Amino acid sequence: MKKNVLYLLIFLFAGSSFSLAQEKIEREVKVKPSEVPISARSWLKDSFEKVKKPKWFLEFSQEGKAYEAKFWWEEHYHSVKFDSLGNLKDVEIEISAEEMPIESWANVQSYFKGEFVDYSVQKIQRQIIGSESDVEDFFDEGEKEGITLRYEIVFDGKKDNWQVWEALFDENGSFMTLIRVQTKPVDHLIF
Hints:
Elements lengths: L1 H19 L2 E9 L6 H10 L7 E7 L2 E10 L2 E8 L4 E8 L6 H14 L2 E12 L2 H10 L6 E11 L3 E9 L4 E8 L9
Parallel strand pairs: 1-9
Antiparallel strand pairs: 1-2, 2-3, 3-4, 4-5, 5-6, 6-7, 7-8, 8-9
């Protein structure tokens, strides 16, 4: 009985501290294409026909396990994420602030200035979300129907002290979420 109560208390404490700890922890490991679900490889080949040899990674995070293809295409770094079964989650394209709509970037800057003493942007990614067929049509034909656009921004931000953060904004630059990023240089691959 005491053992069960102890396990219950440990579980409750661990669960509550996990839910309060809004931190992003990722680790990526390079994998061979043959280790990636065939559905993910097929979708990538159909959607990005001219990409010959994407780099494949297995990502471990607080959300679970995912596969990610990274490659250079049309003057931008792309990252395509699939769940552990090979279903598309999203496509992220690294862009500059100048490539964001002016009003969206102004809204993002307004958020940063209101929430942080100082900040420095490390990376901006345009995130494309939708069904596999809608996202494929977006890249093949420029179709925007069924597509959700967001901006994921990794930045150094100072509140009391400097920390790395990841913020998510909608297409108009309206704030959605903020999470602290915990990375180890050897665990997070930057291409």
